[in-house]
């Protein structure tokens, strides 16, 4: 299974920003952990991060055309603002799992709306960095059901 893990704006600041909400791990540490988990579970994982909406959209489109089986997406603040990313997801035929490190429903009101959720295969929120592994595990379970 080929999976693309996309992280949006400010996730490159993990370990430095709002540690009470996001923890003390860095994006590099998270990606290393995910690569190890994926290698042990037969997943070919690629990880990308961008602070730019258009770049995330380009990667979503590219994934749909290059044989990627699924996307795990933490769109960061774009979750709550980007109709363009929502439309990019709606335009592809591969599943996208939306993830959030913090429980967005326990935070500010503006974080409680997701433009992505209605077009995502599922959403996992609030379990810290484990949301990514939970998403990968869900993809494995879905694949095994055929």
Structural account:
This is 3-dehydroquinate dehydratase. It catalyses: 3-dehydroquinate = 3-dehydroshikimate + H2O. It contains six helices and five strands, in the order E-H-H-E-H-E-H-H-E-E-H. It is of the alpha/beta class and 146 residues long. The protein has a five-stranded parallel β-sheet, with helices on both faces.
Present the secondary structure layout.
Elements: E1 2-7, H1 19-22, H2 27-39, E2 44-49, H3 53-65, E3 70-74, H4 78-81, H5 83-90, E4 96-100, E5 122-125, H6 130-145
Parallel strand pairs: 1-2, 1-3, 3-4, 4-5
Keywords: Amino-acid biosynthesis, Aromatic amino acid biosynthesis, Lyase
Pathway: Metabolic intermediate biosynthesis; chorismate biosynthesis; chorismate from D-erythrose 4-phosphate and phosphoenolpyruvate: step 3/7
Binding site for substrate: 74, 80, 87, 101-102, 111
């Amino acid at each position: 299974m080929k999976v693309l893990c996309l992280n949006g704006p400010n996730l490159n600041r993990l370990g430095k920003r709002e540690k009470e909400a996001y923890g003390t791990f860095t994006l590099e540490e998270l990606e290393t952990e995910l690569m190890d988990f994926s290698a042990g579970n037969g997943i070919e994982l690629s990880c990308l991060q961008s602070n730019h909406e258009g770049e995330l959209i380009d990667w979503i489109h590219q994934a749909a055309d290059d044989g990627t089986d699924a996307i795990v997406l933490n769109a960061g603040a774009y979750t709550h603002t980007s109709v363009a990313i929502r439309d990019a997801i709606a335009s592809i035929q591969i599943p996208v799992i939306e993830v959030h490190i913090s429980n967005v429903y326990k935070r500010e009101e503006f974080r409680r709306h997701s433009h992505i959720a209605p077009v995502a295969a599922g959403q996992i929120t609030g379990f810290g960095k484990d949301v990514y592994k939970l998403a990968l595990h869900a993809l494995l379970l879905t694949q095994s059901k055929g």
